[in-house]
Amino acid sequence: MTTASPHLAAGPRPAVARSFPPGFLWGTATAAYQVEGAAAEDGRTPSIWDTFARTPGKVRNGDTGDIATDHYHRWREDVALMAELGVGAYRFSLSWPRIQPTGRGPAVQKGLDFYRRLADELLEKGIQPVVTLYHWDLPQELEDAGGWPERATAGRFAEYAALAADALGDRVRTWITLNEPWCSAFLGHASGVHAPGRTEPVAALRAAHHLNLAHGTAVQALRAALPSAADVAITLNVHHVRARTESPQDTDAARRIDALANRVFTAPLLHGAYPDDLLADTARLTDWSFVRDGDTAAIHQPLDFLGVNYYTPTLVSAADGTEPDHSFDGHGESGHSPWPGADEVVFHRPPGRTTAMGWAVDPSGLYDLLLRLKGDVPDLPLMITENGIACDDYADPSGAVHDPDRIAYLHGHLTAVHRAIEAGVDVRGYFLWSLLDNFEWGHGYSKRFGAVYVDYPTGRRIPKASARWYAKLSRTNALPAADAE
């Protein structure tokens, strides 16, 4: 949480190459519902995203993940692409309803076999598999029973984690419990722009707590099932919140959003308690009686690293009488706020260039965020588990895809990561989001984040210019000088 300061949109490019530490992990990432398709094959049942996407008006153009990029059938081709990129790791998520269709009971072996084959192929190509257990695809049957606002869902998640670890623990060393629980809780249950599409502020706070509890109990289940050398972590979309001015009112607005965006997760996960100011800010909504004795101790489990997802900073102020712009604060078209207890906070579009998502390009936010995390948890290593940009990419008449804006974005943000490492932050790796153009949640197939272009009618993969750029980076472990590109 900082006040706004003048900054360049992307920052100057270094005149010399910047080498990263030996062993720095270069990877790329996807999520199951965004790429797999095969929505009803081999025992898979609907997730909340299947239901949400098939609900008219929820996803642009009525798009669904029924086919997505057909990764379920084209995984060998996609692993070969990763090998061409020279990446050392692939972060992918498991589809909970593919492994455990009802969210209860024994696993479906065909679902586990898919991930076994994928992991084996990755290892054969020298690529480390990194598994995320949950990237937003709750089995619909668990949602019908109450979903994340209900405590029982956390228990179901721990059981699922144990099943996955038993099946894949001999192949997969690195495990991430949850991806961006803020999105699951607040976009899914307060603003309703993500599945399951609920607009209940108290349910969002309950969901946040039960996601935290699910993480803690899953860490215990993973530790019990995995070899001692395994790494276990969580990935958060830690918001870099800036106040528009240094006024007390704007500073307090930033504090409120920081509590709801970040500390609702980082405080119990890393320090074993919810922040007093968060409880006070939301007291008119709930007394937090859903937090039971022993919960925060269960949540506060040792981690091997913290996964950090960053795309853009967040700029806020106190209400000033102007009409708020909800195009980038999480309201979406629902008209409901994802920020329970912070209705008086106004969000502003940061200055400078923007991506195809309308997000400001600001690598300085990533640098500042990494230094803040080092100050908060100095002994915990960090991993950039997502960073990337949506561009209006297209294949030219020759079939090539040129994406200079993506290369500039990655260069700027990797420069920020390198500067943070030089400043003493223990960053162990970087995962480019995403390997492929894919289903971008409520935006459907209208936004392209991939280093590899996907022609959706045919499924054809075309590596973009940024893919070749990233391949060189991952092989040399050095960020090129600007004049070398």
From TrEMBL:
<dbReference type="Pfam" id="PF00232">
    <property type="entry name" value="Glyco_hydro_1"/>
</dbReference>
<protein>
    <recommendedName>
        <fullName>Beta-glucosidase</fullName>
        <ecNumber>3.2.1.21</ecNumber>
    </recommendedName>
</protein>
<dbReference type="InterPro" id="IPR017736">
    <property type="entry name" value="Glyco_hydro_1_beta-glucosidase"/>
</dbReference>
<keyword id="KW-0326">Glycosidase</keyword>
<keyword id="KW-0624">Polysaccharide degradation</keyword>
<dbReference type="InterPro" id="IPR033132">
    <property type="entry name" value="GH_1_N_CS"/>
</dbReference>
<keyword id="KW-0119">Carbohydrate metabolism</keyword>
<dbReference type="InterPro" id="IPR001360">
    <property type="entry name" value="Glyco_hydro_1"/>
</dbReference>
<keyword id="KW-0378">Hydrolase</keyword>
<dbReference type="GO" id="GO:0008422">
    <property type="term" value="F:beta-glucosidase activity"/>
</dbReference>
<comment type="similarity">
    <text>Belongs to the glycosyl hydrolase 1 family.</text>
</comment>
<dbReference type="InterPro" id="IPR017853">
    <property type="entry name" value="GH"/>
</dbReference>
<keyword id="KW-0136">Cellulose degradation</keyword>
